[in-house]
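Preliminary data (for renewal application), cytidine-5'-triphosphate complex.
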Amino acid sequence: MNVALGVGGGIAAYKAAELARLLMEHGHSVQVVMTRAAQEFVRPLTFAALTGRKVITGLFPGENAADTLDSATEHIRVAQESALLVVAPATADLLAKFAHGIADDFLTTMYLAFTGPVVLAPAMNSNMWRHEATQRNLDTLRGRGHIVVEPEEGPLACGMVGPGRLADPARIAEAVNTAIARTRDLEGECVLVTAGPTQEPLDPVRFISNRSSGKMGYAIAAAALARGARVILVSGPVHLTPPAGAELIRVETAAEMRRAVLERLPEATIVVKAAAVADYYLAQVPSQKRKKSAARWSLELDPTPDILAELGQIKGDRLLVGFAAETENLVAEARRKLQAKNCDMLVANRVEEAFGADDNEITLVLRTGEVIELPRASKRELADKIFDYLLQLRLSLHAAR
Ligand code: CTP
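Predicted structure:
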């Protein structure tokens, strides 16, 4: 694989040489891009000798000692030719620039032009690491699906002791390999995702719904796209921008969602039902707005069709993933729903954790009986973990046959 290695200006820049060596050992071809600050710490020649390639040190020919730039659009070429971008050390400044799309040198410009997976290995002083600005930028970058290889705790060059030391190059190389393995592992798959709440009308202006934001379902769609799948996203009403490349079908009610899902099911190889479907609806919706009065208003609601249970009956070879939002007995309830609805995986979360937030803590219950607790992480990172376990599960189900 062609890997672009961005080196930022920090004391840990010398450790990037070890990373370059490890990546080469793993069979990758490495194009190093150094920021101006990085060159204050390590000479480009070190990387050129290790990788056997000229090192890019600037956006313009004059900034490149070795005259490596053939054209003014070299950053686009490197972006297109690289399978992955890893940045080590990623300084607070680089994280801020990536998070906000500031492109004022080769590395930051190339980052914007790059569409593949990104691995970031930050290193900095502990206070800079803990600073709200840095942490918010990291949340933004994790939300984009980038892998952040957390720095380690220990004595820092500035004399402080705390988090901020660049992760061991072997850990960074491992993250690179994980990210590469994920890039095309859903190629040929069609993932049908449902997301968001449904709205069940009571009259022309009122409806019943729930607190689902749709963020988990949209993160699942984004992860599937990044891993090479075709994605059909059936979405209830949400305030989110759909990920580029997803085929979006907007629905409002549970009945509309059911219709859309059943219509598109034949194309799907994986179905992820992240939507919080309303369990009840009003069968006879009045055509006129109900006027306010002092009298009590009682409604009789009918149960909506359980789309997931219906899919469980007709799923065939498809992988079926259900969700469960619970306030108590999380794992027991997830197990019960997995069996009752014939799912391959049930993603269980606590109601108080799940709704509206950008991160979550989830438990995966698999058809094999395995229970996996995933620590708090961004919904985008969790989406990738869901697919990692789902693909493993498919292998073990095939092997068991
Ligand atoms: N679901 C569905 N159709 C419905 C209700 C739920 O497809 N009418 C799906 C959801 O998309 C989710 C899963 O069922 O994947 C679990 O939803 P949840 O509300 O937690 O479970 P219920 O089966 O409704 O059980 P309960 O409300 O008793 O917890």
